[in-house]
């Protein structure tokens, strides 16, 4: 039978060119190669070998200890035994899965394949070529499956128990997710400076209370207040002090309202209050109490502020714009008539 000649794919003018082709091809088709030479004691490793484990190329000494130090301690005896049997000619093939330490400290499952390519006159191995392949995903999936099968087969673990365990894990995961969702919701509803509800949350709350009032015919009132001459505070003491004033005031108001009242920051130096189940007169009295408390409160030693309030109540069929137009007018009148006062605007006053 005629012998098939190997096809000659490459012709190189120099050995250097041939080396370059070989190295580039190796880097393309195998993830990491190694080449052990007994005479020099060196192990030459390809760039892919370093990259697979996340190390900078060439960072290690080119000796066998580098390799031995990276093998997972649980796999080490098995790998060494296999390697010795291979070099002693007791097994024909060297192909073994084990874990190698990556730069980030985690371990990567690899398959290590090797071939003896030179022996001396006495038959002692003098050169071995090998290649590492990343099998991490496949191996970890396989091990998890083995573990589940093992648990299933174990006398004390029934399928039912395994399902219960998985269900519990899922429950914990769901609880964590729920907590994350609540945290995100909390952040999106809170004013970052004062840590009280923001305008978005206020508008949501307003819609809810409006529907509740429509449904049950409950009274519903609102107040908006604004710090007097706040611009002067910023201009005189600086923006940072202005921020501290806003924070202190927000905390102070929060402590002086009922739990069911809603208090939020509308924006800038304006704040809003919702008084569910309270008629206009009640809201005005509450605003008056707050106005007085603020005027008496020393935010910093010797430092006081005043606020102007606009108050109105809800009339069935009012739109949010109607409510705001009234409350804005009331606040405008409070400012225009000298500040540090509460002005209420009856529904009839608008109609
Ligand atoms: N420090 C600080 N200042 C703010 C913030 N938001 C708005 N301001 C300032 O609040 C000031 C509001 O000024 P004006 O609207 O003129 O009102 P005012 O000086 O309080 O005067 P009246 O309301 O008429 O009594 C502006 O100088 C804004 O820059 C904030 O978050 N921090």
Describe the structure in your own words.
It is an enzyme of class 2 (transferase). Its EC number is 2.7.7.65. GO terms for molecular function: diguanylate cyclase activity. 48% of the residues lie in helices and 21% in strands. It has 351 residues and is α+β, with helices and mostly antiparallel strands. It has two domains: 15-140, Beta-Lactamase (2-Layer Sandwich), CATH 3.30.450; 199-350, 2-Layer Sandwich (Alpha-Beta Plaits). The strands form two sheets. The chain has a five-stranded antiparallel β-sheet. Strand 4 (107-119) and strand 5 form a beta hairpin. Helix 8 packs across helix 9 (239-255). The longest helix has 30 residues, at 159-188. It is elongated. The mean pLDDT is 91. The chain binds guanosine-5'-triphosphate. Residues 193, 226-231, 234, 239, 242-243, 246, 268-269, 335, 339 line the site of guanosine-5'-triphosphate.
CATH architecture of the largest domain: 2-Layer Sandwich
Q: State the helical fraction.
A: 40-55%
Q: Any idea what the shape is?
A: elongated
Summarize the biggest pleated sheet. 5 strands, antiparallel
What's the end-to-end separation, in Å? 111 Å
Question: CATH topology of the largest domain, what is it called?
Answer: Alpha-Beta Plaits
Total DSSP helices? 12
Hetero groups in this structure are:
guanosine-5'-triphosphate
What is the CATH level 1 assignment of the largest domain? Alpha Beta
The number of strands is 10
- For the largest sheet, list the strands in their spatial order: 2-1-5-4-3
The overall pLDDT, averaged over residues, is 91
The tally of structural domains comes to: 2
The CATH superfamily of the largest domain turns out to be Reverse transcriptase/Diguanylate cyclase domain
Question: Which structural class should the secondary elements be placed in?
Answer: alpha+beta
Question: Which stretches are poorly predicted, pLDDT < 50 over at least 5 residues?
Answer: none
- Please provide the ordered H/E string of secondary-structure elements: HEEHHHEEEHHHEHHEEHEHEH
Beta-strand content estimate: 15-25%
Organism: Marinobacterium mangrovicola
Protein name: diguanylate cyclase
InterPro entries: Diguanylate_Cyclase, GGDEF_dom, Nucleotide_cyclase, PAC, PAS, PAS-assoc_C, PAS-like_dom_sf, PAS_fold_3
Pfam families: GGDEF (PF00990), PAS_3 (PF08447)
């Amino acid at each position: 039978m005629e012998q098939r000649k190997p096809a000659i794919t490459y012709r190189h003018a120099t050995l250097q060119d041939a080396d370059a082709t070989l190295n580039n091809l190796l880097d393309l088709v195998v993830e990491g190669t190694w080449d052990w030479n007994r005479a020099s004691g060196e192990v030459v490793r390809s760039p892919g070998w370093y990259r697979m484990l996340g190390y900078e190329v060439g960072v290690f000494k080119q000796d066998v200890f580098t390799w031995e130090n990276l093998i997972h301690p649980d796999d080490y005896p098995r790998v060494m035994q296999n390697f010795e049997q291979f070099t002693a000619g007791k097994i024909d093939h060297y192909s073994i899965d084990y874990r190698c330490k990556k730069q980030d400290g985690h371990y990567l499952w690899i398959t290590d394949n090797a071939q003896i390519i030179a022996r001396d006159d006495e038959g002692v191995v003098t050169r071995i070529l090998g290649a590492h392949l990343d099998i991490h995903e496949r191996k970890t999936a396989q091990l998890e499956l083995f573990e589940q099968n093992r648990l299933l087969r174990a006398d004390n673990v029934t399928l039912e128990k395994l399902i219960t365990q998985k269900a519990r894990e899922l429950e914990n995961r769901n609880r964590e997710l729920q907590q994350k969702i609540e945290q995100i919701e909390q952040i999106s509803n809170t004013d970052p400076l004062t840590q009280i509800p923001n305008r978005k949350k206020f508008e949501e709350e307003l819609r809810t209370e409006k529907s509740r009032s429509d449904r049950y015919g409950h009274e519903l009132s609102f107040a908006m207040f604004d710090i007097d001459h706040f611009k002067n505070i910023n201009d005189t003491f600086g923006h940072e002090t202005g921020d501290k004033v806003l924070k202190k005031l927000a905390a102070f108001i929060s402590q002086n309202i009922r739990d069911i009242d809603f208090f939020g920051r509308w924006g800038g130096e304006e704040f809003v209050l919702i008084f569910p189940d309270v008629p206009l007169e009640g809201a005005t009295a509450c605003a008056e109490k707050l106005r007085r408390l603020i005027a008496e409160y020393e935010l910093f030693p010797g430092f006081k502020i005043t606020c102007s309030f606009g108050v109105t109540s809800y009339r069935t069929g009012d739109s949010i714009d109607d409510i705001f137009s009234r409350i804005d007018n009331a606040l405008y009148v409070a400012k225009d008539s000298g500040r540090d006062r509460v002005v209420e605007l009856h529904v009839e006053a608008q109609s």
